Amino acid sequence: MRQITSRIVSAFLNGERLKIDNTITQGGVIWLWDNMIAERRGNGLWITNAGWPSATTKERLNGLPEVWIVQKKGQWYLNGHAWDGEWVRVADFMGSVRPETEPVFDLTSTWVADGGYSQPNYAVWHSNNLSTLEPVEAGLRELGVPFRRHESDTQGIWRPNYFVVVRPEDFNRVLTNINQ
Fold first, then answer.
1. Residues forming beta bridges with residue 123, ordered by sequence position
2. Prediction pTM value
C-alpha cells in the first residue's frame, strides 16, 4: 500500500482531516480528484469508483478495511463479486477472503537420483538455458497457473540450473497438461 493511501485511510478511520496531493479526507469521506470515493454512513462503509476505474482509485479503495478489489479482463471485483463501480455498501459484498498477495511456492529441494542434482520438489521444468523456460511460462500463463522462476545453487559443470516452480496444489494438473 502506498504511503499516501495508508495515511489518508488512517485519518479517515480516526475521523481526522487530511489532504495529500490529489486525495482528501474530511473524516467521514474520502475524495480523489474532487470525486467522493468512500463515505462512512450510519449503516456502514460505502464506496464507489466515481466513474474512474483507474489504478489509483483501486489502490485508494483497497486501503480501506474489508475492501479487496481486483480487476480481471477489465471487470472489477469487490471481495470476489463482480462490481460496476457504483455506490455500494461494503458489508453487502462480504463473503470472500482476501487472498495472499503472493502465492506460496515450496522451493524445498530433493536429490534426483537419475539426474544427479538437487531440484525443487514442485519444479515442472528444468533447463540450463534460460530462454527455454519462456515457452513453458507462456503455457502456464494460458492455464492461469502462478509460477516462479528459480535458480538452484547446484554446484558443478551444469550451471546454472533454472527451474519453473508452481504451487503444490497446481503441480499434478500442470504435469498432466505439459505431458499431453
1. 165
2. 0.54
